Amino acid sequence: MPQFINEEQVQGEIFLEPDEKMLCAVGSRQLRSFLEKGIRKKCFAVLSDRAVYCKGKCTVSRDRHDYQTRQIDFRLDLEEFKDIKYLTQRNQFLLSLAFFFLLLGPALLLMDSLTHFAADSAWNPTLDAVICILFAGVFFLLYSIHQKTFLELLHTNGSIGLDQHDLPRKEERLLIRYLQAFLRSQNQAEEELEMEDLENPEDLGDLEELKAILSDPMPD
Fold it and tell me: Do 160 and 138 fall within a single domain?
């Protein structure tokens, strides 16, 4: 449990069930700020033995395509939890500007070759084309640098992304270990249930299908 976190206060103000046990928290500074002052601007999450409670500014999605960043107060039951991944997002507006200037440069040269407007004026299309390409390079560079990485919790109805910038690495790794251990236990329980259903040799079905089930690797 994070230092200086009052577990009784967490049970009273965050957990929905009185007998839930706190396992870990990510964003403990934000959690303390929420418990002491009711402030939840940045994201934080608390893991109990039954659910993950996500609060603050998070990135949510229903289909892993349409992502929205907003303030949430969400309880993710462990029974609905499916996987945990890292998600990297970049600013698509910067990429659009880069392509715009990359296409604008040759377009200016083409327009001049068709209209010969530059011959009758002080306009230098070659210089403008070079400037446009330089702008395109700058925006491409900004696009490659400007990115956000989220710790994404996948569940049956979508996903929740916690901004990695707001999460201490030690707390982040602890949450990942707990959730991966939960996934391994779930997969093991499902495999044992499948094996219990195979009581007679005639129930084994296709041998290659059975081998595929038994050799399916568990998450790291």
Answer: no
